[in-house]
Amino acid sequence: RNAMISSKYRFHGHGSLKYVYQNGKTVRGPLFSVKYTPNSKRVNFRVAVVVSKKISKLAVTRNRIRRRIYEAVRLISPEITQPYDLVITVFSDQILSTPYEDLVETLRSQFKQVGVIS
Q1: What pLDDT sits at residue 12?
Q2: What is the pLDDT of residue 77?
Q3: Phi, psi for 89 (deg, rounded to 5)
Q4: Contact, 103 vs 110, CB < 8 A?
Q5: Number of C-alpha atoms within 13 angstroms, CB side, residue 50?
Q6: Distance (Å, rounded) from C-alpha 10 to C-alpha 103?
Q7: How far is it, in rounded angstroms, from Cα 13 to Cα 99?
């Protein structure tokens, strides 16, 4: 179960995130919010997953949440046709108990709402 999304589709770092935070549009869902901004400088979309320490003090748990989301993004990724920078901010640890299919569906519907996929 180690098919991580390739690193060229990932980003982190204060600068890039800040840009999305300042210029992005947001859709909040039950488990996380999706914030995005088009990035014309790139050919591929990029995604960052932010899991705050409020959700879990344990890095292991935060990383598990992060991996679940990256995995869901990977499934949906063929449908993302334009170079967006996406920041997914998690605000519920319910994500760990959410069935995987539901997680993918939730993500897909939020991507649709922001217009990242049609």
Answers
A1: 74
A2: 93
A3: -105, 120
A4: no
A5: 18
A6: 19
A7: 30
DSSP result, 29-89: -SSEEEEEEE-TT-SS-EEEEEE-TTT-S-HHHHHHHHHHHHHHHHHHGGG--S-EEEEEE
Round to whole Å and give the CA distance between 118 and 114.
9
In one-letter notation, the amino acid at residue 98 is T
pTM of model > 0.70: yes
How many residues belong to the chain? 118
- pLDDT per residue as tens digits for the range 29-74: 999 999 999 988 999 999 999 999 999 999 999 999 999 999 999 9
Q: What CA–CA distance (Å, rounded) separates 49 from 34?
A: 9
Average pLDDT over residues 9-34: 88
Pairwise CA distance, residues 97 & 113, whole Å = 24
**What per-residue string of b and e applies to 10-32 under the rule 16 or more CB within 10 Å gives b?**
ebeeeeebeebeeebeebeeebb
